[in-house]
Please model this.
Amino acid sequence: MPHATIPLGALLRQFPLGLVLIAGHAEDTAERPVQWVHSSDLSDPTPFLTPRTVLLTTGAQFAQEPSATSATEYVEQLIDAGVCALGFAAEVRWVRTPGTIVAACEALGLPLFRVPYQTPFLAIIQTAARLLDAETHARDTWSLEAQRAIAGAALHADGISAVVRELAARLGRWVAITDRTGRVAQVSPKTARSEAGAEWIRRESATLVDRGVRSGRVLADGDAGAQLQTLGRGGKLRGVLVVGGSAALDHAEQTAVSLVAALATLSLEYRSGIATADTELRAAVLRLLVEEQRPLAERVAEHSLPSLPSDPVRVLVLDPNEPDGSPVIEDLRSLTASRPGALLARFDGAPTLVIEQRLLRPVTEHLAARGVSAGVSGRASVDALAEAIAQARLAYDIADASGQGPVEFRTSMASSVLGLLDRQPEAATRAKALLAPIRTHDARHGDRIAESLEIWLRHHGQTSPAATELGVHRHTLRTRVQTAAGLLQRDLDDPDVRAELWTALRLVG
Model:
């Protein structure tokens, strides 16, 4: 955490000290941060120095004027140690500062000032300590006032928005809160929305949330910079607090940011609790819409949910085994929370999203980026949701079987090969006959060969992910697959055999 600092100019402007800058002038010289002042006549004092130190010396380490090379090496090692300025005493060991030291400081940009004989080093150190104490007190006062103002803002009707505005005003930087996917949910000032919504910030925010661990990060992208702090509990992160600017925050500023992060976490956790509580309400509203009772659904949702979707809509269906608290569902909630025109609920056990056509793209792009299988219906009317859900389910089956991300429904899917075979009794009979050896084996021995084969085929013959889904060791799964091959007398490395078995398993359910 950065300690209190004072600008170098504040020290040089102390008239009683009589300090005169003689080399190393630069535009930022007066603003260079000073954290401490130290004196040393060692030829290499760097082991005893901390960054942002002003070093004072009488020059006693130089028996004679150092060569240009030696002077450059001396100044370079000071710069490497983080020394921000060098003070050289006059008329103690040297009447005037050695020219090679002056030249090296000028060439390398290290501020060099002359300390008159009448000014003891102790006076400079004490003056710096007094200025640092005053700055520390000022920052403590600022911190206390900022915390009070932020706490007061939290009591406003718009709560977290007011808190973000207050922090931005206090820091003089833009401040934003992103949801789990990196989308900007709050930003102040409003004119900074494009900066806060930059792709690199969205990407880094989503990455931090995906890690699931509370953390912070300072990032830079060209001339732009930002500091990110996750919001929420470990494993249940809700979003990210983003503070614009690449310059490090001091202790007082970081305290204010931490307070806002805590308040934002409480707000997001509270909203999450409400979202969990209204899950059943959303499911009930969706069922009413499917049953074509739209007026009743609108009355039920009127005071509890955002505006229901309007035509035209699309329906997305996800894996029925996806739990409500999973990152996939939480991301969908973040993307659609408080957005008029989207309704996320479970329907017949599967996560189902009814969303207006205009809002579809960011949702499907997010799912595709994470490789999440989903079925997407064609355009539909809210009054015809049953058909749209059926389309989305059919598209999901194809997405799941192929391992793709979102798959959109096409009319040809309704007459797919599997669909045609399913309507042929002889196909089902032959499928049962093909699978009879392993199904009989399972019935006799209480084994899971058929189930293991189906999941192994669903994962395209990849043992590790299939074993994970089954909850068994991969060696156990390999043994089961070998058993299936022996019982069926088929070569499971043959793609035609795999396709035939997958079709048979789908036909017999």
Summary: The chain has a mean pLDDT of 86. The chain has 19 helices and 17 strands. The chain has four domains: 6-133, 154-270, 278-415, 420-508. Residues 218 and 227 are 4 Å apart (CA to CA).
